[in-house]
Specification:
The protein is α/β, with parallel strands linked by helices and 306 residues long. Helix content is 27%, strand content 29%. The mean pLDDT is 95.
Length: 306
């Protein structure tokens, strides 16, 4: 079973035929759900993808355009009616967002069997806004028509693996396992130092996922997500509309690919496609010409990172 999975619930602005739903993703990390943006129908998409409402604890809002946040009242109402008893749902947003959502949810969702809390971040800053023993979520600025924020979900460095046969050979006590897995050498009762490299093998690689919603092409984004494993980056337009992309605060598919290449990403996921396109084949061609390991997002897509 995957321990780090990204579920795509909405992949861009809705078209007249609803070929794509408004933006919404859910990161499933060790059975804890983190929602990134909350477009309309988010709760229905969660149900279709069999994501448990009760496991949702955090919602991260990138910016205050309706296709990224107007699903919040419906989602919170659904959680209150059918899915979540007790605990806390934390909405991570800007100060303006917290003010708006408090008023909306205060009117439509007056009584919930769980607490709704707000954690405010500065959209112009880079800061860690969530941390557990294994995962951090960090904000970084994006460059749109309104203040907009990207999110980096990054695993912390993992522990090294004990070599069972070697540990048994040296009669290492269980109480010392944690320190050795953290990288310490071990000293026998006779004072002999056993190097950590003898006792352990390297840790598994830590995985990261970056969410870049609405933004023009800007090299600062690449620096903010440098070394990321999987990058989601908006690709509203193809190259023939590059001028319109910049005027409207968006990127093209090839620009998203340039960000992924500059950042040293392993994988690129494109999303947030304009309604003018019947499909995303041209987006994919233009991006893969620059960054071959590119896929396009669609509703129902789930990517296992671990």
């Amino acid at each position: 079973m995957s321990q780090f999975k990204v579920n795509y619930l909405g992949c861009g602005s809705a078209t007249p035929t609803l070929r794509h739903l408004p933006s919404c993703q859910v990161i499933d990390y060790r059975d804890n759900l983190f929602m990134v943006d909350c477009g309309e129908c988010a709760q229905l998409s969660m149900r279709r993808q069999r994501l448990k409402y009760s496991r949702l604890g955090h919602i991260f809002i990138s910016h205050l355009h309706g296709d990224h946040c107007l699903g919040l009242p419906g989602l919170i109402s659904t959680l209150a009616l059918t899915g979540k008893e007790g605990g806390v749902v934390t909405i991570h947003t800007t100060a303006d967002g917290a003010d708006i959502f408090r008023r909306i949810l205060g009117f439509f969702c007056r009584e919930t069997p769980f607490d709704v809390r707000y954690e405010i971040f500065d959209p112009k800053a880079t800061s860690t806004i969530f941390e557990s023993d294994a995962l951090t979520v960090t904000t970084f600025p994006l460059y749109h028509r309104v203040p907009c924020t990207g999110f980096m979900f990054a695993e912390k460095q993992k522990l090294r693996h004990l070599k069972g046969d070697v540990v048994r050979f040296y009669n290492v006590p269980v109480r010392d396992y944690a320190r050795i897995k953290s990288g310490d050498d071990w000293v026998t009762e006779e004072g002999r130092v056993i190097p950590n490299a003898v006792l352990t093998s390297p840790a598994d690689a830590a995985v990261s996922y970056a969410y870049c919603s609405d933004t023009v092409y800007d090299e600062r984004v690449a620096r903010s997500v440098e070394g990321v494993h999987t990058l989601y980056h908006e690709a509203t337009y193809t190259d023939d509309y590059s001028d319109k992309a910049r005027k409207r605060g968006h990127s093209t598919a090839s620009e998203a690919a340039r960000i992924a290449r500059a950042a040293g990403a392993t994988q690129l996921v494109l999303g947030h496609f304009s309604k003018r396109y019947a499909d995303e084949r041209q987006h994919l061609r233009e991006a893969q010409a620059i960054f071959p390991n590119t896929v396009t997002a669609y509703e129902g897509l789930a990517i296992d990172l671990l």
